[in-house]
Amino acid sequence: QKxxxxxxxxxxxxxxxxxxxxCTYSDRGSQSFFWYRQYSGKSPELIMFIYSNGxxxxxxxxxxxxxxxxxxxxxxxxxxxxxxxxxxxxxGGGYQKVTFGTGTKLQxxx
Amino acid sequence: xxxxxxxxxxxxxxxxxxxxxxxxQNLNHDAMYWYRQDPxxxxxxxxxxxxxxxxxxxxxxxxxxxxxxxxxSFPLTVTSAQKNPTAFYLCASLASGSTGELFFGEGSRLTxx
Lengths: 110, 113
Known about the structure:
The complex is a heterodimer. Chain A has strands at residues 4-5, 11-14, 19-25, 32-38, 45-50, 54-58, 61-66, 71-76, 85-92, 98-100, 104-109. By secondary structure, chain A is mainly β. Chain A is globular and about 40 Å long. The model of chain A has no long low-confidence stretch (mean pLDDT 92). By secondary structure, chain B is mainly beta. Helix content of chain B is 0%, strand content 50%. In chain B, the strands form two sheets. In chain B, strands 2, 4, 5, 6, 9, 10 and 11 form a seven-stranded mixed β-sheet that branches. The N and C termini of chain B lie far apart (36 Å).
């Protein structure tokens, strides 16, 4: 059984700070890693994906992957109140089946 | 505009009734998925289909059924056998060759009275 684990939070950060969201996964064969943002009552939207070890940056977002440690993280720089949402970590394998974590709720305090 | 349309957005059902949730996509994606989300929980896979006329059970398929007669459509029926059907249901699709970047519909919220 694949597992993806996240701290449920809430993670509270002041506006302008860096928010760090973490995720671990159990299946060493996992190949693709995703971060989705979900606002309350809405559907998830993809914000980052990463396939290779290291960092991937897109605007204020940086995804970090360490396959040896089975660890993936999302950094949000200059956090804004509009970043307040639940962030879902998702892991995909070779059969395009994607397993989601339970999500971390982020609160950015103005 | 291309996208995924789910209907209805809100649905109330009496115990013992079957209900069908619609999911239509015009993205020309081959694979389609149904997920269930409970409050404070992640997404759990109900069924998925990688090609027309073929579908596979996900992690929580009991009490649900699907069909995939057309590439564009993947309806989900919540049967009376599903013991706790109140949840937020999400349909998603995946482009061929993609490694897992899912596109989601807006969701259907089912409440059993």
